[in-house]
Amino acid sequence: QPVYGSILHCSLYGVEHTGIYVDNNQIVELLGNGEIKLSTPKEFVQGTNAMSIYIACNKKRVLSYQPAADRAINMIGKTRKYHLLNDNCHQFTSGCILNEFENDYNYFYTLESLISEKLNFNKPINWRVWNNKPRG
Fold first, then answer.
1. In terms of Cα–Cα distance, which of 133, 136, 95, 86 is closest to 114?
2. Top mean-pLDDT range of 80-84, 97-101, 132-136
3. Which DSSP state fits 35?
4. Taking residues 8-34, what's their average pLDDT?
């Protein structure tokens, strides 16, 4: 189960969509229209081909970062100039971790390296399925 500040992702037709878990089945995400929104798990996977939501973990526990969740919450209702490659959900999620929203972590693999470095002592990330039925 995710905890406050967990990094989440789901499948988006061959690429990934990421966000920050903030409690009570709520996820902060950057939508394709540039809106930063508080979403339910069902809304997070809406418009994707995702069957599951994955949580960044190490071998023993869920990885989380409280300041990332705090920053994500502070961004709800704001907008960004969304661009699929240059200003996307990965850059937003990285921005929540770094407290720098104009960053170079705009690909999933670069976000993974940031999570590894900042939250897991440079060790690999294990993505585990959240035992939640987002479509149900």
1. 95
2. 97-101
3. B
4. 94
Residue given tokens 């989380």 in the structure block: 64
Tell me the HSE value of 18 on the side-chain side, using a 13 A CA sphere.
31
Q: Are 30 and 96 in contact (CB under 8 A)?
A: no
Q: How far apart are CA 21 and CA 45, in angstroms?
A: 14
Contacts of 29 (CB under 8 A, 6+ apart): 17, 18, 19, 20, 36, 37, 39, 44, 89, 92
What pLDDT score was predicted for residue 66?
98
Residue whose pair of structure tokens reads 């995400």 in the numeric block: 29
Measured in whole angstroms, the distance separating CA 58 from the mean position of its chain's CA atoms is: 16
Q: Measured in Å, how far apart are the chain's first and last C-alpha atoms? A: 17
Per the CB < 8 A criterion, the answer to whether 18 and 9 are in contact is yes
